[in-house]
Amino acid sequence: MSDQLPPDSPHANHHAPDGTPSDSAQPGSPETVPLEQTYRQETRDIRRIAFILNPASAKGHARKTARVARKVLHKRGLEIMDFPCDTAAQARESARRAVADSTMDAIVVSGGDGILSLMLQEQVGSDKPLGIIPAGSGNDHARHYGIPLNPRKSAGIIADGFVSQTDLGLATFTDMHGNKRQRWWSTITCVGFDQMVADKTQEMRWPHGSLRYILSLFIILTKFHPHPVRLSLDGVVWGEDHLTLCAVANGKCYGGGVVVAPQASSYDGVFSIATLSSMPRRKVLRPLFAAKRGKFAGAPGVTFHEARQVSLEMEGLAPIADGERLGYGTVNLECVPRAGWFIVPRPRAK
Asked: Which parts of the sequence belong to the DAGKc domain (predicted)?
């Protein structure tokens, strides 16, 4: 579901949507002010929203979730305009229309991580924030941004109207037809064992949530072997030639809450890169179950690094970004500060 990069793409020179070159500092920002303080956060008067429901999310349960959320939004005085989302193409078209409609204050998505990834491709570069009503099987975007899975509470956050800029990842890759493409992503791009498990998880229809991830993990484990990897972090070539997995993260978790990058942040201008060294199958489960318990850091074979630009290729595998497959071959990833706009919970007063 990626878009071919047109020659005149506004992202071709890797500028953030606010006009700031992603590899240079703003006057008075990173050199003189902590980077996290350069991210705009504000309360907006959100009155009219584009509501995009993915009816297929969570085997149709998204409809019930949306009904609950809509009651809260109506009660809070928001005007809801429905945009169709029966197919991926229709979802993209609805997102384009919502972005172009000057009367819309925000785009609200009721669904899972897949539909959010689609919306992101159209929303980046606009001033309209994305609001999330979690209604998928993993809901890792919601977990990352601290949005409750309860639809009443997540709808209340949208009505509160607190919005924030965030970092986004920009993936540049070549598809199977030789076309150069780009894709925005928000949480994690991964390749290796975790990517194979994620692929398997998407194929399965049962069970739901993290149990489906765990079952997929055991299935992949029976046939997995570490793959040759070519990895560079900010131009520095990685020393190992085989890895079990590599996760490039703005978000902390994937797979319905598996914490693989506990240090990751969407407000620091860099990726957190988690790697798991080459190891036999019998030893793979220990660090992965440590991740499930939120204890990936310190597990055998696990290392963490930070970088703004990552070049990644794992032989025979295609990385996935926010659950969407990228291309085979080398994938270049760039952390673009302040590229995202999301409706998030208001920070608690210290």
From this structure: 44-175
